[in-house]
C-alpha cells in the first residue's frame, strides 16, 4: 500500500454505506439527487475531488460537470462538414492608388492589441508592411479603430496620398471616413493621434 493513498470503507460523501461501486453510483445520497442522467463519470469525478483534494461537491456541482462533459462529447461527435465559402477575389485599387489593408487582434486580459498592416499596389506587389503592439486598449472596437488610424499613418509616412483602406470593421472605416461629429470612443482615438 502506498503511504499517500487513503483507504475508505465508508462512503466519504454520505458516510451512510460502504464505499462500493454500487453505493457510489446507485445508493449514495449525492447519486440519488442527480441520477436522472448518466452520471457515472461526474460522480466519480466528485468522489475523487473529495478523496484527493478534500473538496466536497454538491449535487449541483456534479450535475454541472455532467452537463459540461455531455456538451464536450457532443462537440467531439459532431461530424465536421466542409463549409462552402464563396470565392472572394481581391479587387485592385485604381491605378494611381494603393490599398492599405489592416487587422487587429485584441487581448482583453492584457488590455493590448496587435496590428498587422500591408500595402499592395494595383498589381498586388507589396510596397510596405508592418506590425505594431498597442497597450492600454479597452475593447475590440478601440483596437480596430487604433489599427485603422495606424494603417493610415503608416501609408502617409511611406509617402502615399491616394489610398483605399480595407479592414474587417465596417463601422470603424465608416466613422473614420465621416465628417460628422462623433461621440463614440473612436472620436477620442482619432483626437489622440
TrEMBL record:
Domain RNase H type-1 intervals: 101-187
Superkingdom per UniProt: Eukaryota
CDD domains: RNase_H_like (cd06222)
InterPro entries xrefs: RNase_H-like_dom_plant (IPR044730), RNase_H-like_EbsB-rel (IPR052929), RNaseH-like_sf (IPR012337), RNaseH_domain (IPR002156), RNaseH_sf (IPR036397)
Pfam families, sorted: RVT_3 (PF13456)
GO molecular function, one term: RNA-directed DNA polymerase activity
UniProt KW keywords: Nucleotidyltransferase, RNA-directed DNA polymerase, Transferase
Protein's recorded name: Reverse transcriptase
Amino acid at each position: 500500500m502506498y503511504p499517500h493513498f487513503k483507504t475508505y470503507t465508508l462512503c466519504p460523501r454520505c458516510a451512510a454505506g460502504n464505499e462500493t461501486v454500487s453505493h457510489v453510483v446507485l445508493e449514495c445520497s449525492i447519486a440519488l439527487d442527480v441520477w436522472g442522467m448518466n452520471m457515472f463519470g461526474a460522480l466519480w469525478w466528485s468522489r475523487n475531488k473529495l478523496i484527493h483534494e478534500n473538496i466536497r461537491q454538491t449535487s449541483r456541482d456534479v450535475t454541472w460537470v455532467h452537463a459540461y462533459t455531455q456538451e464536450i462529447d457532443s462537440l467531439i461527435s459532431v461530424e465536421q462538414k466542409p463549409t462552402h465559402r464563396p470565392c472572394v477575389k481581391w479587387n485592385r485599387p485604381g491605378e494611381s492608388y494603393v490599398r492599405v489593408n489592416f487587422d487587429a487582434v485584441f487581448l482583453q486580459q492584457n488590455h493590448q492589441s496587435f496590428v498587422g498592416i500591408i500595402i499592395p499596389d494595383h498589381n498586388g506587389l507589396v510596397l510596405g508592411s508592418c506590425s505594431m503592439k498597442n497597450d492600454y486598449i479597452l475593447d475590440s472596437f478601440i483596437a480596430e479603430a487604433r489599427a485603422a488610424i495606424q494603417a493610415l499613418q503608416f501609408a502617409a509616412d511611406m509617402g502615399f496620398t491616394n489610398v483605399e483602406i480595407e479592414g474587417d470593421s465596417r463601422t470603424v472605416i465608416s466613422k473614420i471616413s465621416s465628417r460628422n461629429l462623433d461621440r463614440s470612443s473612436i472620436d477620442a482615438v482619432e483626437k489622440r493621434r
